Amino acid sequence: MDHHIDRHYDEALNSLKQQILLMGSKVEVMVSDCVRALKEKDTKLAERIMETDRAVNALEVAIDEQCIELLARYQPAASDLRFITRGLKIVTDLERIGDLAVNFAQRVKELVEQGAPPVDVTKMAEIVQKMLKDSFNAFVEGNAEKADGVFKHDDAVDEMTKKFVNELIERTASEPGLIKTAFPTTSIIRYLERIADHATNIAELAIFMIRGRDVRHGGPK
Amino acid sequence: MSAITCKELNFYYGNFHALKGVNLNVSEKRITALIGPSGCGKSTLLRVFNRMNDLIIGSRAAGDVKIFGEQILGDGVELTGLRKRVGMVFQRPNPFPLSVFENVAYGPRIHGLKRGGGLERTVRECLESVGLWNDLKDHLKENALSLSGEQQQRLCIARTVATRPDILLMDEPCSALDPQATARIEELMQDLKSNYTILIVTHNMQQAARVSDDCGFMLMGELVEFGDTNRIFTAPADKRTEDYITGRYG
Fold first, then answer.
1. Which chain A residues are Cβ-neighbours of B250 within 8 angstroms?
2. Which CATH class is domain B2-94+166-245?
3. Of the candidates A5, A78, A80, which has its C-beta nearest B249's C-beta?
4. A6 touching chain B per CB within 8 A
5. Which CATH number does the domain housing residue A67 bear?
6. Between the CA of residue A89 and those of A82, A96, A153, A202, what are the distances in Å?
7. Tell me, what's the ipTM?
8. Residues near A181 by Cβ (< 8 Å), separated by ≥ 6?
């Protein structure tokens, strides 16, 4: 990438990018740790996820401040303006994913006490993790093709959510004893669906940043 | 309607090729900004539109430039009429060393308007249109050079609009003013837009972003990109525009 004439501006933008990268990678690890904790019934890992969330929240505040400072001091334009304003929005999505990961981890702890989940969400979790990784990479690498791929998976995740939730409702109707594991499992499925929605938001933000076109709410991609 | 239409305009200072094949449409009653680094040709382009460059020995324009459909290049053009129709405001306020009243009355008087024949009304209307009337109505006989920089620039705008032009050319009109005076001149430009087509050259990119409806980026005599200001400042199509407005170098 070409450099700015103002070296300090260049450094401030790079620093912002690094902070967003750091926040995004922490959130990605939180989600993958949730899936691992569920698979390995690891309550200690679930607790560590909750601790990571504090760092993610602090990063959200720090990145917000950096963005505002850049806007106030440098009056950015064009791709810089798109990067900074989308950065302000992306941290909100990342922070929400962090919160969902914390909820996920709490449900994992409940499941470790109550028994194994009645349905296998591994495949769904893999898709959601890929969506998150691709949307975030699209943003930091400026890779629109990766963002395009994310949209295709969102419908599949919605379908899986519907299928799993219906299955759990039917099974708990015939096996009431299943309620203790079905309830946290349903929550986990919902969290994964919402993480996929946030990943889709991030992909939309990435498209705007790269192509300068707003594709939210059905706008042309 | 296009106020200015420019096709394949080339301009030379002697052997120096200052404008290279410029094509441009300036829309009526909008503010159009020209931005670009020093020496890119934006002031030269501005001065083509009222033939101010004719004053420079060895300069030469070739191409097709029309003001509201009328060709303005070539020998047969009546320059006093053109400059009445296409007024100009300069970088530094340059009032005549005359009274406030005489500065505004100067142009209309040349064009035949007399005291008692509507001259006073014209002066008043022009001073009102630039927001000076209330401050200066009791000081019309004072020398214009005693005014503040901002008042002088407003007076120069009043002097320009006094000849009832269609187009106002502004060459860095705020570069000698402080930020507050600049903001007030920018507000005045927005008010004037309903009656005039304004073409402004500015080094201040934030000013171009704030005041203009359309914006053109020039580089080494070429008009690299032209379009809606919102688009130019958020998602320019040409990398050279992007690099300039984000302050990058290749």
1. 2
2. alpha beta
3. A5
4. yes
5. 1.20.58.220
6. 11, 11, 22, 9
7. 0.79
8. A111, A114, A115, A116, A117, A118
